[in-house]
Structures are given as C-alpha cells and as structure tokens.
Amino acid sequence: MSAARLRTDVRIDHESWRAAIPDAEKLSRKAVRKAWALGRKGLDPSHILSRKLPGPIEVSVLLSDDKTVRGLNRDYRNKDRATNVLSFPGETEVPFPDTEVLLGDIILAWQTVTKEAQLEDKTVADHMIHLVIHGVLHLLGYDHECEEDAAVMEQLEVNCMASLGLSDPYTTGD
What pLDDT score does 173 carry? Predict the structure, then answer.
C-alpha cells in the first residue's frame, strides 16, 4: 500500500506541544508513515495488515497532557496514572471496498514526555517521534510483553528512527 493511502489525523489539545515543537504535526505524520511502512514489512504474511487493503487507512494522533492520558489510562486500562503514550487499536476488518480503516488512536502526554526527554537527555521532538512510532507499532500488533517480542519491537523502533536520521531511542544523549 502506498503512503498516499495512509491518512494521519493529528490534533493538538495542549498548546505546549505547538510552542516547543512548531512542526509537531508534520513530524507526527512522518513518524506514522515510517512506522507503518517498516512495521508492516515485519508482519506475518497471514496478518490482515500485511496484505493490500481495499480502502484508505487512518491513524489518529492526539498530542495532549497528563490529565487526559491519566483519565484514559484509568478508564480503559484500570491504571490510575499518566503514561507517556497510549495506543488504542481500531477496527481492521473492512466491510466494504474503499471503506476507510481506522488503524487506531495514539495519545501522548506532554508533561510525562518532556520529563522523560529531559531525564534521558533527548530533545522533546525526538522523544515524541519515537513514542508515535512506538504507538503505531502497537496498533500493528507488536508488543513488548516478553523479551523476544520486546527485542523485535525495539529493533523496529531503532530502524524507524535511523531511517528518519535520528539516533537510537534506547541510548541516552548523543
């Protein structure tokens, strides 16, 4: 599937994102496209998302804050705390040709992301890109529940970041 058939809807509801990263929307879209392209290549051929899909794909990215993410984490995951990124898979079954498929939603928490970036000596923009990639890979079905799966997912993240000209997100600083 070509990137033209992938649509990324980016919404910013916490203005600190825009102030700190003026091109946050553009960078989020680039991160989604890269994770979609490289992540799909690693899927089992029987996985529905590894095949040509009849309609366009949509990914929604929300750049928000700790309060919003904490509420979603509490309501949908029974974890009453903020986290850096949440991803909620959509419906990948396509009932009709040319019907848009919602791959899912990714939500980032400003305060947690900036705190982590500072502690890890990274730019907020690079950390945001990494977390958007991480979220897309979750939407594609990757996880890090066991060491083997985590190694696969982390390598994909490293590859995505490198192909965007960015450093390994699992090392601190430059």
Answer: 53
Name every residue whose Cβ is closer than 8 Å to that of residue 162 and which is 6 or more positions away in sequence.
168
3-state secondary structure 15-72: CHHHHHCCCHHHHHHHHHHHHHHHHHHCCCCCCHHHCCCCCCEEEEEEEECHHHHHHH
Q: What is the DSSP letter of 5?
A: G
- Quote the DSSP letter at residue 102: E
CATH topology for the 3-163 domain: Collagenase (Catalytic Domain) (3.40.390)
H or E segment to which residue 86 belongs: strand 85-89
Domain boundaries, the chain: 3-163
Q: Is 1 helix (H, G, I), strand (E, B) or coil?
A: coil
Non-local CB neighbours of 34 within 8 Å, separated by 6+ positions: 133, 160, 163, 164
Rounded to whole angstroms, the Cα distance separating 29 from 122 reads: 20
Give the model confidence (pLDDT) of 99-109 as tens digits: 778 899 999 99
Q: How far apart are CA 116 and CA 62, in angstroms?
A: 18
Torsion of CA 28, 34, 38, 40, to 10 degrees: 60
